[in-house]
Model the fold of this input.
Amino acid sequence: MSEIDKMLRFLHLDGPAADVLRELAVFRTVPRRTQLTEPDSDHHLVSFMVSGLLRGYLLDDRGGEITECFSFQYGDLRINSLDWERGHLDQYVETLEETAFVSFDLDELMPHILSYPELTAIFVRRISEAYAEQSCHRRILVHTSAAERYQWFLDSYPGLIDRAPHKCIASFLNMTPVTLSRLRRAEREGDFSTAQ
Done:
């Protein structure tokens, strides 16, 4: 079974809607450390992750990178044009590992999304999940200690602590790499209280 067919099955799509997506889908693999998009890019793709690891980030006023999100699970949705009003992306996206996608050109896909309610439902659900994840991340950053943020990351992003660069994880958790290192050491020693 092709990766495109596996993804359609994962999305619970069959019949005419699946036939349309199968015709429009492109399976692609992108090497590690590839810049997929940057602000003002004209890439308008809808991609479902097959494997790998992505990082979305912004730049602060001094050019420092602020990690906003990670994508690493099968079926994660990535839309490379989230700023619908201005028509361009306001975030950088890079691969941290070799990453595979099933992708669709948004301009080709949009008329079909409106024609098939099951496609509309999939995209609404996936976009809602992404926004809920971002909202949870913001609440965690504002209302928890560094140790609580670290524990939340371990629980919410299983295995990612050993896959993503620690400076990216520290940025995502709004802490310094030194604090993250201290928390990791405390976790290994079984005593978070010494790290706070």
